[in-house]
Design brief:
mainly alpha, globular
Length: 523
């Protein structure tokens, strides 16, 4: 990591604080999301978790209709407009209209479900039907709240845009504790109560978003302003559809063809590995100040330097995290989710490998977009999604339209996701080499070796000393793994005090708290 200049201007300091809070938000969301997962899995079982995962995915896949992707261009239009109040009004009008379209399609999906035309292997009970309706309302509330949060994000108000989501998760976890404390483990109403916990969390998110939004200047849009948003739809709506398919199609098809038990296994493994990609996303966000600085220099070597930097730090974080998950996958599943989830250890292993490739794509994609290569990235993403969807249809179901398929269930979905991630990584990495001559860093080989030695050490420690049976044992092993890995990297010359000083400058707690308070209070 190159040393930064001694004099840091005010804009760059502000960008550091925004980047740091984004990492705090991502980490907090991962922790609270894992807490929700644990509460449901350990106390209510596979079937409830599978049903919740199916409901989230069934309406999540049409969530692109809640704005048709215009949220991604809202910031550009808002900054370019000389009438920002009308731009906000146009976004609000289009968002509410698109939410209406989503609700209509959601109602059609619900009717098909009630008619048992798309239940598949999922149980068509009154409780499941109620859960689906609740999650349709959940996505509507999130869509309304995103009018505010996307506008805050477009204005650069990171805390205002992300804090409501943290409140959503806090409310959800608190309500799940109440549900588990006051219900019987085998009650059919449990799945409905869990769905209400999600819904009330989204309601809290909406209320806070509107409170923060109440001083925003907003005007009724004119035809010209609405036209600017409509003209931006054609490219972004396809990307939005691709993202929705990537995020949810595997869960829907596993549930449809195999039922809630298999989906519960797959969904649990999928959500439990969130920390691998969270670490990578955190690294990508934290190097953002360096990215903007190098871009400002207009140095022909700047892009290569940033990519090398990004890949090194993603590699140094992701490989040990992935190795830890893989070597202890049965223990992690048993300790966090319960003994019945050990059957998902192979799914977890494949999904972790997939997350390695996805993790390297995050910073590469951001840097290539900064190099005005967004169109190429778009085509790579489309090919990746198509590859994954086709493989899911081949690998997951036993039969499809009367044709015998592989029938692998959850592990088949994991293999398909891995293939899609591999296509995305290879395409993105090739573009980085072709367009800006950025070769991959071979220092990753050192990180892989250190990760393998660390994993072997932790495996021996667990099998001979700790014998992990609880989340606390896994957490202790994680700290031990971090210490072993850091020592190995230091001995190999891959970590030094300069690295620690760089991240310490970014993650100053006192300055981050001050920045968050100023933004929330509007100072």
């Amino acid at each position: 990591m190159p040393e930064e200049d001694g004099q840091v201007d005010q804009k760059r300091q502000l960008l550091r604080r925004k980047s740091a809070f984004s990492v705090i938000h991502a980490t907090s969301s991962a922790i609270l999301g894992t807490a929700s997962l644990m509460l449901i899995a350990r106390n209510l079982g596979l079937e409830v978790l599978g049903t919740i995962g199916f409901a989230i995915s069934l309406f999540g896949i049409i969530s692109f209709l809640s704005d048709f992707g215009i949220g991604s261009v809202h910031g550009r239009i808002l900054w370019e407009s000389d009438r920002p109040a009308k731009a906000v009004g146009a976004y609000a009008v289009m968002r509410l209209a698109s939410l209406g379209i989503m609700m209509v399609l959601g109602a059609v999906i619900y009717w098909l479900w009630k008619s048992e035309l798309m239940t598949g292997q999922m149980a068509s009970t009154n409780e499941t039907s109620a859960t689906l309706l609740i999650f349709l309302a959940y996505y509507v509330l999130l869509g309304v709240s995103q009018i505010a949060t996307h506008t805050f994000e477009a204005q650069g108000n990171v805390v205002k845009s992300q804090f409501p989501e943290i409140l959503d998760l806090l409310i959800r976890v608190g309500l799940l504790v109440a549900v588990i404390s006051g219900s019987h483990a085998d009650s059919p109403q449990n799945v409905v109560l869990v769905a209400y916990a999600y819904l009330l969390g989204a309601l809290g998110c909406l209320i806070l978003s509107l409170l923060l939004f109440k001083h925003m200047e907003i005007e009724l849009p004119d035809r010209e302003m609405l036209g600017r948003y409509f003209s931006a739809l054609s490219p972004v709506v396809i990307v939005s559809i691709a993202v929705s398919l990537t995020s949810f199609i595997d869960n829907i098809l596993v549930g449809y063809f195999w039922g809630p038990i298999e989906l519960g296994l797959y969904f649990g493994a999928q959500k439990l590995i969130i920390f691998v990609t969270t670490f990578a996303l955190g690294v990508a966000i934290l190097i953002l100040p360096s990215v903007t600085t190098y871009r400002a220099r207009k140095d022909p070597l700047a892009s290569w330097e940033v990519i090398s930097l990004a890949e090194r730090y993603v590699s140094i974080v992701v490989f040990p995290a992935a190795a830890f998950y893989i070597v202890l996958s049965p223990q992690i599943l048993r300790s966090f989710l319960g003994g019945e989830f050990v059957a998902a250890s192979d799914m977890m292993t494949v999904l972790v490998i997939s997350s390695i490739f996805a993790s390297f794509v995050f910073p590469l994609r951001a840097i290539l977009v900064a190099e005005n290569l967004a169109r190429t990235i778009f085509f790579i993403q489309i090919v990746s999604v198509i590859s994954a969807v086709v493989l899911i249809l081949v690998l997951v179901p036993r039969t499809l339209f009367g044709i015998e398929m592989m029938g692998l269930g959850g592990i088949g979905a994991a293999y398909a996701v891995l293939a899609g991630s591999l296509v995305s990584f290879v395409g993105t990495r090739w573009m980085a080499w072709k367009e800006i001559q950025a070769l991959p860093t071979f220092r990753s080989l050192i990180h892989i070796v250190c990760s393998l030695v660390m994993a072997a050490t932790i495996y021996v420690l667990d099998t001979t000393v700790i014998h992990s049976t609880s989340p606390w044992h896994i957490i202790i092993l994680a700290f031990a793994a971090g210490a072993v890995y850091a020592t190995l990297c230091w001995l190999a010359g891959e970590l030094d005090l300069g690295d620690l000083r760089y991240f310490a400058r970014l993650l100053k707690p006192r300055e981050n708290i001050r920045y968050a308070a100023r933004e929330l209070l509007g100072k």
